[in-house]
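Please think about what follows:
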Amino acid sequence: MRKIFKKGLVVFVSLPFSFLILALGQQISSEKVLASSFASLVFQDSFERDTVFDGNWELHSSTQDRSNFTTTTEYKLTGSRSLKIRNPGSGMQGIFHLMNSDVRGIVSVAFYEYGDNRSAGSSVGVSSRDGSQYVNFQIDQDAQNFVYRINERKIDSGVRRTQGWHILRFAVTDQGTYGEIDNTSLRSLGINSQLTRIAKLGLSRGWGIQGNTYFDEIRILEGSGEDIYQGILDYWSDEVYRIYKDIDLQGVIDGITQRSHLSAGAARSLAGQVMMHLYYHYRDGNEEDFSKAKTYLAAILDKYPYWKNIWLSSVAMNQVAFDFWWYWDKFEPDLRSRFLETLAEEADFWTWVLNEVKNNPRGFTIPEEAGRRKDQPNLSLITTDPDSNGHLYDSRAEENSANAQLLATAYSIWPTHPHASAWNEAAKTFAFHALSKGETYNGITSRTISDDDTLGNHDLWPNPLYTLGSITALQQGQFSYLLAGLEPPWEFFHHIEEKTNSGVWRRNITQCMNSNTFEITEECHAGQDWGDRNLRVASFILGYWAGLQNDYPAKNLMEKMLYYFYSINAPIKYPHQNPVARIDRYTQEGESLQWWRNLEHHPQVSAKIFAVNNYQNPSFRSSFFPQRLNICEENFFHKKIWEGGLNWSCDNSVKKVGNFSVKLSNSNPANSEVFSSLIKVEPNKTYKVSYWVKTDGLQAEDSQVYGKIVAAQYNQNAKEEEGVEQNRIDAGFSLGENVGGTTDWLKKEYIFTTTPQTAFVRLRAPLGLQGKARGTVWYDEVKIEPTTSSSNQLSFKIKFQGINNAAPSKNVLVILKQGGVEKYRFAEVNVNADSSGVYSGLVENIAPGTYDILIKGPVHLQKKFPNVTLNQGANTKDFSLIPLKAGDFNNDNVLNINDIGSLLSYYTALSSPVNSQNQKFDIDASGVININDISLVLANYTALEVRGDE
C-alpha cells in the first residue's frame, strides 16, 4: 500500500465475539472513565499453584475431605495445572467461591469432558447468596447432551458432549441469568429471571459417582447494562451517537465527487454513519434514523464516482454492502436496485482486475489508481518481485485481503448472479495471495510476507497494524460466507490457520507487543504509520477467533487485553463535550478524522458484534441478512421507462410463492418494464420460461406486449451495465401469451430456442411494451431453465417456392400453438435440401398433443399447418406439398409494395449475379437475380397487403 493512504486503520466490518465489545473504543474524556464498576475482572483462578485452598475457595457443607481437591498436571487448558476434583465413590465433593458483594456480569469456567460416563456427576453453577436461586450445568449418567438446570427444572441443552475442554459461561443480567456452552447461548431455552445478581460459584462432582473432574481458567467479570455483552460497548456508542446523530454532512456528500483518494474515505465514513443510524433504529425504533440512513446510502451510490476505479472502492463497497444486507427487506426497491447494480459492477471490476493480473501480467491495462504500481505492469497490483524484499516496503497484503472480502461479500449476498461463480473464484485467489511466501495459486506467484512470516509496509517491518488490517479483512470475508450459510473457503485461512499460534501472528503481533501493557514496541515502530502506540485493535481479530471459531487462547488473550485497557489503562480517547454541528469536508485530520475513527470503532462495532452474536439466531435471520434475496431483486432490478411512468415494488402482501412477488403499476398509460441481469445461456439450445402472473385492471391501450414475461436474446458482446437494447438479437416480444384485465394467479410457460449467436438472455417483466398499458400486474416464481432431454421429436419436410434442385441450407422459424396460444418457439431451425429441393429439419422436446404448426422461411410468408397430432417418441411430417410463398424481404410476415420495391432495387440488369448484399432476392437459388425471381414474387402479390398465417 502506498504511503498516500497510510493514515487510519483499515477496519473492514464486523467481527468479534461478545467480549470484544469492551475493546473497540479509543480514548474517552476523563470524566467518563470506565472504572471497575463498569467492566472489571473481580476474580480469576488458573490454579497455577500447589494447593487449591488459598483463601478463595471453601468446602461445600456436605464435603469433609480437602484431599479430594488438588491442582494437577494431568489435564490443563492453559499453563501447567488445572483443578482436579476426585470423588472416591461417596457423597458430594464440592467447593465454592463466595464473592464479597453481589455481582452482575459474566462467569466463565473451563471444564474437561471425557465424552462418556467418566464425566458423570460433574457440575458447575452460580447462585444467589442464600442459594435459593441458581443456574448450573451438569453431566448426567448416559446423557448425550449437557444438562442445563434452572433451580429444579432440568433442560436438555441440545449441545452434544464431546471429549475435550469446553467453556461454560453464565450471563448475569438485569433480566436474569442464563447459560452458554462454547458460545452457544441457551437463553432461548430458559432464563432464571429471579437471579439478577450472583454471590456464589460452585464446582463439584457428586452423587457418589467415582472418578475425577477437571476445571481450569475461572473468571468472573463484573459489568453493567441490561445486556452485558452489548451494553458495555453501547456505553461509548451512545456517546458517539449523541455527538454525531444530528450532524450536517452535506459538505462531505458534495466532496465525494472530488477526484481524490479522500473521496473513498468520505464514502466509508458516510457508510459508517449509516450503520450508526441503522443500529439505533433497530435498537430504539427512531424512524428519523432510518430516514437518514437511506439518505446517506443514496448519496454514496449516486455521488461517489470512483466505483470500479480505485483500490479503496472495494473497502467502501464492503461497508455499503453490509448496511444493505443487514436491512435488506426494509429498503425501497429502487434503492436496492441501484445498490445491486453498483455491487455487480464493483465485483465485476475486481474480477476483471484479477484476470488481467493472471492472463496479462506484463501488460499495463489495469489503472494505476486501482493498485497497479506506477510504471509497473499488472502483476504489481498483487505482488512485488517474489524473489526480492520489496514486500517489506509495499506489502499488498491488506489490498489483496480487502479485494477478497468484497468479492466474498458480493458472492455471499448474490449467489444467483450470473457472475457469482467468477466472483467467488476471484475472492479465493485474492485471499490466498493476501499472506503469501512466494507461493503459486491460480497461475499467480506472489510474495506479501517473508519466509519467517514478517509483514512489512511503508518501509516498516514487522508492521503489526497492517498485519491486523490484513487479517481483519480475511475474517470479514469468512463472516460473509457464514452469513450466507456457507463454509468459508480454506484460502481465507491461509497462513492463519493456527490463529494466535500462527507464525504470522507470533512474528508480527506477539513479538511486537509488551505482554503486560500491550503497547507496540519501539522495534516495531510504535506511533508510526497510523499513530497507534498499542494493540487494542487486535481485539477485532481475537474476538472473531474466540466467538466464531471457539479458540480459547484467543479468548484468553482478548480478556487480558480488555481487562488492562478498560479497568487499568482507562480512559479511552477522541473526546467531544458537545455535539458536532457540521463537517464541511472530509480530511484525514482534525474533526473529520475523529468522526471517522469514532464511527468505525464504536457504533459500527456495536452493530457488527450484534450481527456476529445473532447470525445463527433464526428469529433474527428471518428479518435481517437474508440468505437468499427475494425474487424482485434476484431477477428484476433494472427499471426502464420508455414512455409514461412506473411504480414497482416487492409486494409481501400479494404473492403466489415464497415471501414476495414483483408488482408493477401505473394509473396512466405507460410503456415501461423491469428486467433482469444478463443470464448466461448456450446457443442453439432450448429453454423453458415459467412464471405466475396476476392482474388487476391491466388495460392494453395500444400495447402489444403486456402481462407476460419475455426473454430477450443478446450476443457475446453484451455487458451488464448496458441498457436492455444494446447488443440485442431478439427482443422476445413474440414469446408467451399476453394477460390483461383482472385475473387471479395464472401459471404460464413457454419454450424457445436460442439462436447460434445468442450468449445471454434478459428476462423482461413489462407493464406494457410496444405501446402503452395501464393498471397493475404481479409476477412471481419466474424461472428460466434448459429443457430436459426427451425422445419426443418432430422431423419435418418443407418446400420453398421456386426451388426444385439441391440448394444451400436455410434457417426457419417453427412455432407450435394450441388453442391459439404459443407453446413452443424454435428460432433459426436449420433445414437442408435434397436433390429435388425438399428441405428437412428437426425440433425436439415437444410434449405429445395436437398442434397448429407454423413455419416461416427467411424471406417467406409464414404458413400454418393445422391440427397436427404428435405422439410420444419420433414423429415425421411432410409439409412439402404446399411451398412457402416468397417475397417477405423485411421479415414482418407481410408482402406489400415495400417488399416489391426492395426486390426491384436489385434488379439492375436482365441477370444480376448474387452477392452478399442481394443474396436473399435470389428466390429460386439459381445464383442470379432475374425475371424468374420477380415473377415468383409478383405471382404472390395479389392484394395491397398479403399477410402470412398467424
Notes: The chain has 18 helices and 37 strands.
